[in-house]
Amino acid sequence: TLFRSDRAAGSPHSTMASSEEDGPAEEQPRRKTLGPLATAWLTLYNIAMTAGWLVLAIAMVRYYMQTGTHKGLYHSLQKTLKFFQTFAMLELAHCAIGIVHTSVLVTAVQVSSRIFMVWFITNSIRLIQIGRA
């Protein structure tokens, strides 16, 4: 499964300690922890994303060192940039199925704004593409 309950994992903190002044012991809400499948997936996803952004950063530095300018940089990186920016849409799925505890709405705004910038703004304005804007 994607999740396992702390209680199912044998956590010693499954109930709160009680004292005479606090009244009876109250049960803590169950906290879900990631199961091994979800942990493995998130680890692979984060490694892939980190590697992708590292490849882009190295390509940017190499391009500038070879050409001495940023003009034309977008054309040399656009496919890789679009791929990794679009791949980030999986973050919405992570929120929606609950393997990360973040608002789907907040994540959707963040991811969609970056995709909008790459696919609609940068892709459609030639001055940005050639580095004159």
Task: Pick out its properties.
two-stranded antiparallel ribbon, 5 helices, 133 residues, elongated, 5% strand, disordered N terminus, mainly alpha
Task: Give an overview in words.
This protein is mostly helical and 133 residues long. The protein is built from five helices and two strands. It has helices at 36-67, 73-87, 90-97, 104-124, 126-130, and strands spanning 3-5, 32-34. The chain has a two-stranded antiparallel ribbon with strand order 1-2. Helix 1 packs antiparallel against helix 2, helix 2 (73-87) packs antiparallel against helix 4 and helix 3 runs antiparallel to helix 4. The protein is elongated. Mean pLDDT is 80; it is low at 3-19.
Order of helices and strands: EEHHHHH
What value does the average pLDDT take?
80
Largest sheet, spatial ordering of strands: 1-2
Overall structural class, as computed from helix and strand content, comes to mainly alpha
Helical fraction equals 55-70%
Computed Rg: 23 Å
Largest beta sheet, briefly? Answer: 2 strands, antiparallel
Question: Summarize this, please?
Answer:
With about 130 residues, this protein is mainly alpha-helical. It is about 60% helix and about 5% strand. The protein has helices at about 35-65, 75-85, 90-95, 105-125, 125-130; strands at about 5, 30-35.
Give me the secondary-structure topology.
Elements: E1 3-5, E2 32-34, H1 36-67, H2 73-87, H3 90-97, H4 104-124, H5 126-130
Antiparallel strand pairs: 1-2
Helix pairs in contact: 1-2, 2-4, 3-4
